[in-house]
Amino acid sequence: MAQQFMNVDRNLAMELVRVTEAAALAASRWVGKGDKIAADGAAVDAMRAAIDSVAMDGVVVIGEGEKDEAPMLFIGERVGTLAPGAPKVEIAVDPIDGTTLTSKGMPNAVAVIGMSEAGTLYDSHGLFYMNKIATGPDAANVVDISAPVLTNLQNVAKAKGMKVSELTVCVLDRPRHADLVKEIRAAGGRIKFISDGDVAGCIMTCLPGTGVDLYLGTGGAPECVITACALKCLGGALQAKPWPRPDTDDAAQAKAKGLDLNSVLDLDDLAKGDNTFFACTGITDGELVRGVHYSNGYATTESLVMRSKTGTVRRIVAQHRIDKVRQYGFAEQ
């Protein structure tokens, strides 16, 4: 990898985890209360307040939308201390991956952030969706998004020393995946449906103990870039193809911005740098991390913190005094 990308010489992920902890703590007050907009707003406010404490000169490239759509964490916004000499980086954020999961108190809602050197994260060209395939290190070299479902399941099973009937495929539970589900079942694979949160769904394929071997299906394009930051740290594989929504002008807009709708993107297209960072903190309990738990004046969080340059993955459990974390912006509900 070209050395011009190597301008970050410390593990900023250890600072980023404070940002995802802040967002998770703020969102946790809204778990199960049926108001995903309020939950997301609380997480955005907290993440934005915390991110400026990180010693970096960052630009949000995946965020809450364009400046006229979002008051903060908008695409193009500069974040961090912005101090002279601070590393120049690009940021991909999702204050809540799984707003519906949060509002319903369902598993696997997380606050996530990805980061890489300036000029290395993919511009999703305003596209809403991408078709994706993801798997862990054991099968990273055998998946092909252009191949039939059966072929991918057979190759993954062989690489992992399993039978196809023993594989579990994670799929977003959406009507658009009806044919995909039929193909997986016809091949003999098992399915784990998730209602939201495909960042977590893809990461599950890389971590032991989650029971997920492969992710297939169409999900958010911005989330694809965030996922790439994580899978680059974990040694997994991620491939994606643009997926314009039927009966919309997605295709025309993407072409106008120069996007090849037939392109196949891999990890090095989505996150070019060799020094990629990722952090996530649980909001609700899930296979990746536990959610926020309250007890005796403390809130306990669990986070994953990763860096691709060293291949380091840390699991951090932290206790936060509730009277000290109100600065994160969550109020009693």
What order do the helices and strands come in, and which of them pair?
Elements: H1 13-28, H2 36-51, E1 57-62, E2 78-79, E3 88-97, H3 99-104, E4 110-117, E5 129-135, H4 149-160, E6 168-172, H5 178-187, E7 190-194, H6 198-204, E8 214-220, H7 221-234, E9 237-242, H8 250-256, H9 267-270, E10 277-282, E11 293-295, E12 298-307, E13 312-321
Parallel strand pairs: 1-3, 6-7, 6-8
Antiparallel strand pairs: 1-2, 3-4, 4-10, 5-8, 5-9, 10-12, 11-12, 12-13
Helix pairs in contact: 1-2, 6-7
List key phrases describing it.
333 residues; alpha+beta; 13 strands
Characterise the protein shown here:
Helix content is 28%, strand content 26%. Strands 1, 2, 3, 4, 10, 11, 12 and 13 form an eight-stranded mixed sheet that branches. Strands 7-6-8-5-9 form a five-stranded mixed sheet, with helices on both faces. Helix 1 packs antiparallel against helix 2 and helix 6 runs parallel beside helix 7. It has 333 residues and is of the alpha+beta class. The N terminus is likely disordered. Helix 5 links the parallel strand 6 and strand 7. It contains nine helices and 13 strands.
